[in-house]
What we know:
Blueprint (H helix, E strand, L loop, with lengths): L2 H25 L2 H8 L3 H8 L2 H24 L6 H18 L1 H13 L4 H26 L9 H17 L1 H8 L6 H24 L9
Amino acid sequence: MDKDKIDKKDHILDVAEKVFSELGFDGASTRTISGEAGVNMAMLNYYFGSKEGLFVAVFNRKIVSFQNLLENLGNDSSISSWNKIERYIELYAERVVNNNCFQKMLYQEMAMQRRGDLADKISEILMKNVGEVRKILNDGIDNGEFDKDIDIEMVIATIYGTKNFIINAPQLTSNMLGYDIQNDKFLEERLKPRIEAYLKRLLKSYLLKEHDYTTK
């Protein structure tokens, strides 16, 4: 695919992400998206086939790019398993701050608790990243760095759950934290470092074998 076509597809996906985040899957239409993207319906259908195909493509673009980062991180033999978890937390917190439209779109879709092909496709995409984190944790157990009795699934739920609670209930958590978490400045300067520091400290005390904090 030549550069012009790639750029056009990316532009459509950028617009679709914004529209889906504002209106949800059910409220958005391909006609609205094509209009805001400045392309005709024939082009949109040629690239994506349907609204569902476009929706899945938006998810796939974001999740797969993160998955590639996680694969490279997991395969890096030069750093410890704990350092990989630290780096993962940093990457994760960064994406929370810099992908607001996608995060909103993701939460809306998860809250819908859909059934059927669309839900299965979204779940399959998300589980790829879960699998990469699970691999890092299992490697840490196998090499003796992490406690063999850690609950891997609950560790993953803790990472995702902390962020989900904060972002999914903005009015409650803004009051609780003392600043507006929907303000980009506060997200970058206050919430992101706070999420990173909390998760690192929490998981370090839980994961490292016999609470051995000598791992740098």
